Amino acid sequence: MMKLPILEPKFVFTPDATSSEVFHSFTKGMCPQCRQLCDGVRLIREGKVFMRKQCPTHGQSEVLISGDSAWFLRSLTYITTGSIPLKHSTKVDAGCPNDCGLCADHEQHSCLPIIEITNHCNLECPICIVQNKNNYNMTLDEFRATVDGLVEKEGTLEAMNLSGGEPTLHPDFLRMLDIAVARKEISRVSISTNGLRCATDEDFCKELAARNVYVSLQLDALSNPSLRVLRGGGDHQKMKMRALDNLEKHGVRTTIVSTVAKGVNDDQIGECVKLLYERDFILSLMFQPASYTGYGGAHFAKHDPMNTLTIPDVVRCMEEQTDGLLSKSDFLPLPCSHPSCFGLTYLLRDEAAGAKKFTPFPRFIDLETYLEILANRGTIRTDESFEAAVRKAIDDMWTSAGSIPDSDKILHQLKRAITVMYPPDHALELQERMRIGEGLVKTIFIHAFMDEHTFEIDRIKKCCTHYAMPDGKLMPGCAYNMFYRHKDPRYAADMGKAQIWGRNDLVKLGAKSDSSGH
Length: 518
Hints:
By secondary structure, the protein is α/β, with parallel strands linked by helices. It has three domains: 22-78, no CATH class; 112-341 and 448-491, Aldolase class I (TIM Barrel, Alpha-Beta Barrel), CATH 3.20.20.70; 346-439, no CATH class. The chain is 30% helix and 19% strand. It contains 16 helices and 16 strands. It has helices at residues 69-75, 140-154, 173-181, 196-200, 202-210, 224-231, 236-249, 269-278, 294-297, 311-321, 367-374, 384-399, 407-421, 430-440, 457-461, 477-484, and strands at residues 22-30, 37-45, 48-55, 59-66, 112-116, 160-163, 189-193, 214-218, 254-260, 282-289, 332-333, 342-350, 357-360, 441-447, 465-468, 474-476. The strands form two sheets. Strands 5, 6, 7, 8, 9, 10, 11, 12, 13, 14, 15 and 16 form a twelve-stranded mixed sheet that branches. A hairpin with a 6-residue loop joins β12 and β13. The longest helix is centred in the C-terminal third of the chain and has 16 residues, at 384-399. The radius of gyration is 23 Å and the shape is globular. The N and C termini lie far apart (59 Å).
C-alpha cells in the first residue's frame, strides 16, 4: 500500500498532456442550482484543474478548482492520516454530508473549533458567506455546554474561536471570554471581528489584552475602494487603521484575515504581506479566496465559476507582489486537512539590527521534518517534537554550510530560538514557550472555503474547521453553511433589525461622506 506523504513524487507527462483535456479522478459535488449532490470528474486542462458535474435535473456544470495543475498534483502527495476526535456525536447512516456531527466517517479532528455566539452584525458585507438574521444571541448556559462538548470531543484544544455575526455585539461577550479563558484545556482563545468596537473603544482593547485573547481582524485591503466593494459603505480604511493602532497600543496579539476576490483586491495581496512583516503585534495573516455562498457571497458581483481565485493563485500573487520576499516553493498544503482547503508557510524572524526580515521555513528545513511540524495542527506547538525539529535543522545547516542563502543568520536565529524556548538550566511551561515562539515565528495561511460550485465530499470529510454546537455536535464549516445553517432551529425566528455602520452616520470615527473613493 502506498504511504503518504510522498516526499519525492514522480509524475509522467505524455506529449499531449498540456494540449488536451486529461481525466484525473472521479468526485462527488453539488449542483449549484438545486443544491443536490451529483457525480463529477476532475479534469486537467491548459495547466488548470476543473470539476465537471452532471446533475440529473439541471445537466452539466463546470468550475475551476485549481489555477495550477502542478500545484494540485503535488499537493495530493502531502496528505497524511488524520487525528480523530475522542468521541463522535452522530452515527453513519445517510452518508456524507447528511450525518454531520461528527460521524465516524469523518477523517479529521477539530483543529480550529468556532463558536458562533450571535448572528447580530453591524455590517452588511456584500461578500458575507453566512446568513445573519439578527435574531439570536447564545445564552451563557448554551455557551458553557458548547465548551464542555468541545473538551469532551477533543480533550485539549490549541485554539478556540468566538465568532458571529459580530461577536463583540453580544451583551455577555466579556463574560463568555472569562468562561473560555478559565478552561485550562484551551491554550488560545481568539475572536473574529470586523474591528468596529476595537476602533471606537480603547477600554475594550484593554479588556482583550488583560485576558490574553487573540484577535482575528477582518482586513481585506488597506484602502477604501476595495474595502467598500467587499464590506459596504463607510470609511473602512480609517476604521481599520484605528483598530490596528488600538490593538497594537494595548498589546493584543492579532491575525489579519483578508477575503480576496478576483478583480477587486487581488492586486493588493502584497500590501497585506508587508503589513504582516512590518508590525510586530500581527502574528499571522490569513487569506481567504472569496466563496460565493450565503446571503452576500451568493449574489456578489457577476460571479464566473470558471474564473475565480484558488490557493495557488493567491500564492502566485504573493510571489509577484512581494519583491522576492516570498516564492511559490515557500508554501505547502496543510497535510492534516484536504490540500485544496489550506496552504501555509511559517516565517522565521531575523532580529539582527531590528530588521523586519523573515525567512520561510521550507528554505532551511527538510520537507519530512517540516511536514512533521505541521502534522494535525495549523499552528506551531512548541513541544518536544518542535524542539527536535529545530535541533535537526541546526545540525543539517552545519553540514550544508554555504548551500543555503543567509545560512549564518538563519543558524543564529535557530540557536537563539532553542536558547530562549528551551533553556538548559530550567524548563518552561508550554504556554510560556508558545508565547515566546509567537515573537520568533509568523505564519501566512490560505484557507479556501467551498461554495455551491466548488463543494466536494472528499474535501468536507477532511475538514478541520468546525462549528461547535450547544448540543455537542461539531459541524464541518462548509457543510454547515450549505446544508444545515438555513434549518438551524436557533435562527427560526423572524429577521431582526440591524444597526448597520456606515449606512447613516459615521460620527464615532469622525468620517464624512467621500465620493472620491478615499
